[in-house]
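A reminder from the course coordinator: this example appears on the midterm review sheet, so study it carefully.

Given structure:
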């Protein structure tokens, strides 16, 4: 792996966590204990997941972040490198453990997640500036909100290509940060938080909420089993999901973001990239775990071609 910044398609600034996943029949209610099946320990974290997703799809990816000087940190670095991701700017932090996510997944593939950031909380503006050349050369920069917001602001300011911000977990963001974002990728609940509304349940409610966000950036809302919604300028397009049999939705949104970056770095239009990302995310739900489930292009084609009869999913569009 070369350290020539000009050779990278995608730069990711974000988190790396080890996921502990427990399958359960039903997600626990507050105060309730439920018994589950055998747990799965797997590399995860939104930043690392999205980097691995783009890497598995064939993109040249550089990751910027932090892990602890521990066994989970080594597991995370190994997983990134196995996907071809450059980890020269993933710093080992001796005074903090690697991040960890505690995940329960029910029989329908839905999940609840609690995250202990660990070393991810130590990502600094200096870390981002050190990797600034990578960010300025990458066709797409992917950022999430599992690292400190000042590092996020620095990353979107440094980026020279298309900036995709996955606002997870959702928090209020300064207008100065959003001004540097080209594509925002919230899910339903994140969209509600950012728009100051209830979580939208229908496509029309999602459109209304997205239209409350600051102008000047495209919005791609991930809708789980309902696919995705693209709002770009005067055009709105709903892209339905593929009818796959989901076993674990953990990391599906990250698969979507990684695939969106893949498509945009290959000069697809936003709608074309989002349509591809819907297919990749669907394929990712058919296996357990986050990074272990990230598919290759061949796996996506083999799975979704059977569902779609050899063609991409259609969509519903209208102008506003």
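Designed residues:
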């Amino acid at each position: 792996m070369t350290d020539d910044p000009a050779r990278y398609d995608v730069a990711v600034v974000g988190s790396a966590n080890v996921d502990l996943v427990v399958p359960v029949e039903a997600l626990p209610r507050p105060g309730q204990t439920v018994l589950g099946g055998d747990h799965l320990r797997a590399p995860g974290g939104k930043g690392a997941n999205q980097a691995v997703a783009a890497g598995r799809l064939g993109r040249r990816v550089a990751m910027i972040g932090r892990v602890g000087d521990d066994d989970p940190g080594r597991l995370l670095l190994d997983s990134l490198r196995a996907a071809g991701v450059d980890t020269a700017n993933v710093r080992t932090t001796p005074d903090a453990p690697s991040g960890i996510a505690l995940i329960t997944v029910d029989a329908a593939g839905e999940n609840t997640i609690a995250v202990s950031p660990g070393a991810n909380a130590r990502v600094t503006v200096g870390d981002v500036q050190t990797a600034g050349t990578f960010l300025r050369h990458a066709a797409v920069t992917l950022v999430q909100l599992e690292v400190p917001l000042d590092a996020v602001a620095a990353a979107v300011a440094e980026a020279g290509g298309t900036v995709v911000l996955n606002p997870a977990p959702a928090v209020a963001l300064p207008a100065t940060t959003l001004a540097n974002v080209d594509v925002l990728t919230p899910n339903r609940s994140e969209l509600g938080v950012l728009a100051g509304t209830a979580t939208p349940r229908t496509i029309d409610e999602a459109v209304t909420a997205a239209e409350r966000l600051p102008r000047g950036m495209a919005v791609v809302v991930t809708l789980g089993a309902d696919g995705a919604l693209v709002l770009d300028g005067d055009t709105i397009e709903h892209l339905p999901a593929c009818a796959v049999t989901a076993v674990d939705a953990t990391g599906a949104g990250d698969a979507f973001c990684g695939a969106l970056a893949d498509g945009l770095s290959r000069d697809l239009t936003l709608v074309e990239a989002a349509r591809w990302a819907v297919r990749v995310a669907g394929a990712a739900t058919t296996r357990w775990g986050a990074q272990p489930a990230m598919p290759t292009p061949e796996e996506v084609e083999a799975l979704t071609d059977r569902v779609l009869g050899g063609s991409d999913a259609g969509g519903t569009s209208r102008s506003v």
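The CA atoms of residues 136 and 160 lie 4 Å apart. The mean pLDDT is 91.
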